[in-house]
Every structure is written in C-alpha cells, then in structure tokens.
Write a structure and sequence with these properties.
mainly alpha
C-alpha cells in the first residue's frame, strides 16, 4: 500500500484548518501589517521546498508556504469582514485601522 497521498491529503487539510484562525487572530492582534511576515514565511517555505529531497516533506513545506502567501489575500479580506461587522475588531486599534483604510479609498 502507498500512504503518501493520504499523508499529503491529511497534512493539507490540517494546514488549511490551522491557517484560517492564524489569519483571523493575526489580523485581530497585529492588524494588516502582519502581511510582511506572511510574505517572508511563504517565500522561505516555497524556496526551501525546492531543496528538500524527501518528496512528502517537500510537498508539505510548499503547501505551508503557499498557504501563507494565500493568507496575505485573506488578511485584506479579513479587513473587509471586520469593516462590515462580520468579525470582531480589536478595540485597541480598530478605529485607526478603519480611518487609515477609508483614507486609502
């Protein structure tokens, strides 16, 4: 039997499941500025996956990297969701973040 497909499938499922709250909590506590960290982690993981000889590990690291890169898009979407009231805003900086966002438009 070959378990590599099952291992990768479970890993991708878990990575996506973990990244959802990472984006929400990251935006809540750090705001939109956390996108730079997502970009750096994403690029590092994707590049690292090119040099990992073990196929399953390489695929999982690449999926982590791409999930962080996709997380950048989701951070900006999260800003919209908070602005619309669909998600809770952090009261410590919610007003300034919305003012800055409204000025950009």
């Amino acid at each position: 039997m070959y378990f590599s497909g099952l291992i990768i499938g479970v890993a991708v499922f878990l990575i996506i499941g973990i990244m959802h709250p990472v984006v929400i909590k990251g935006y809540y506590y750090l705001g939109i500025k956390v996108w730079w960290a997502f970009l750096a982690i994403g690029i590092i993981c994707v590049v690292a996956s090119l040099f990992i000889p073990h196929q399953i590990t390489s695929i999982i690291i690449a999926v982590v990297g791409m999930s962080f890169l996709w997380g950048i898009h989701e951070l900006f979407e999260q800003r919209e969701r908070v602005r619309k009231g669909w998600h809770k805003a952090n009261p410590k900086f919610a007003d300034t973040a919305h003012q800055q966002y409204d000025e950009e438009k």
